[in-house]
Each structure stands twice: as C-alpha cells, then as structure tokens.
Amino acid sequence: MVKLIYHFFMSVQQDTRVRMYERLRRIVEKHAAMDERPFRLSDTMALSPRDVRTIEFLSQKGTFNVTSVADHFRFTKSAASQLVNRLVRRGVVHKEISPHSDKEYHLRLTDAGLEAYRLVQAMDQDRLEAFLGKIDGFSRQQIETAGAVLEAVEKMMDERMEQSG
C-alpha cells in the first residue's frame, strides 16, 4: 500500500513537472511570436523588439559601433550592420565616422531615438506594474519558488545557447 501511494505521489509530481515544462514551452513560443510583432510606440513610430533592444543598448553611456552591437546581442556583424542601417534609415540612430578609423562608425541615438527610448521606458514601466499586479497575492515563498524555477530555466537556456555556438 505504501509503495502504491509512493508511486501515485511520484506520478502526480512527475505530471506536474511535465505540465510546467509544457507551459514554459508555450510561453517561449508566445514570446518568439511576439518578437515578430512591432511595438507601436506612438502614432508615427513602430519598432520591432530587436530595434527596441538595440535602442536600449545604445542609450547606455559609452562608445558603440556595429561590432559592439553584434557582440552584445550575439549577432553576426552582418546582421548587426543590417539592423543598425535600418535604424539609421528610420532616423533613430546616427552613424559618424570614428576619429580612429575611416572604416568604423560610432553610433548614437538621434533625438527621435531618445524619444523612442523614453517611450520604451514608459511601456516597460507599465508592463512591470501589470506584472506586479498579477503576482500581488503571491506569498514570499511562492515568489521565491518561482524565482528558483526561472533561474533553472535561465541556466538551461544559457547552456543551450553555448552548445549552439
């Protein structure tokens, strides 16, 4: 009888873990689908998630070039160059020739890019507040457990990224 109860408990626990994995897969698939949709920041500006992340990166203090964008996002230099050129055409990034090399360009946000960054920050704040509202009734233990699960998922994703090169 004890053995039967143990197997039932282990089966329920395994099913719960499998359902959690399946839910995480659905979340990742939804995130990937959302990553294809542009963010409408205003009546005149819609940017892809990749554009938004690049603007956030370029908003930091420092000197940036196409190589630093490629390195930061783990893109090829060609993909980073295409992304930067698209943002230049959209008027949110300015390229200027480096004082050290005429083959390198320094990147900075234009006034429109800075405005896009401000709009992205406001959107992020709204999303954070919505998220906090969703977990408002959770206990500290539930949040810590969820955090541990998310940490395990992040480690798994890091390992997968390292394996894929």
Automatic annotation (TrEMBL):
<keyword id="KW-0238">DNA-binding</keyword>
<dbReference type="Pfam" id="PF12802">
    <property type="entry name" value="MarR_2"/>
</dbReference>
<dbReference type="InterPro" id="IPR036390">
    <property type="entry name" value="WH_DNA-bd_sf"/>
</dbReference>
<feature type="domain" description="HTH marR-type">
    <location>
        <begin position="17"/>
        <end position="155"/>
    </location>
</feature>
<dbReference type="GO" id="GO:0003700">
    <property type="term" value="F:DNA-binding transcription factor activity"/>
</dbReference>
<dbReference type="GO" id="GO:0003677">
    <property type="term" value="F:DNA binding"/>
</dbReference>
<dbReference type="InterPro" id="IPR039422">
    <property type="entry name" value="MarR/SlyA-like"/>
</dbReference>
<protein>
    <submittedName>
        <fullName>Winged helix DNA-binding protein</fullName>
    </submittedName>
</protein>
<dbReference type="GO" id="GO:0006950">
    <property type="term" value="P:response to stress"/>
</dbReference>
<dbReference type="InterPro" id="IPR000835">
    <property type="entry name" value="HTH_MarR-typ"/>
</dbReference>
<dbReference type="InterPro" id="IPR036388">
    <property type="entry name" value="WH-like_DNA-bd_sf"/>
</dbReference>
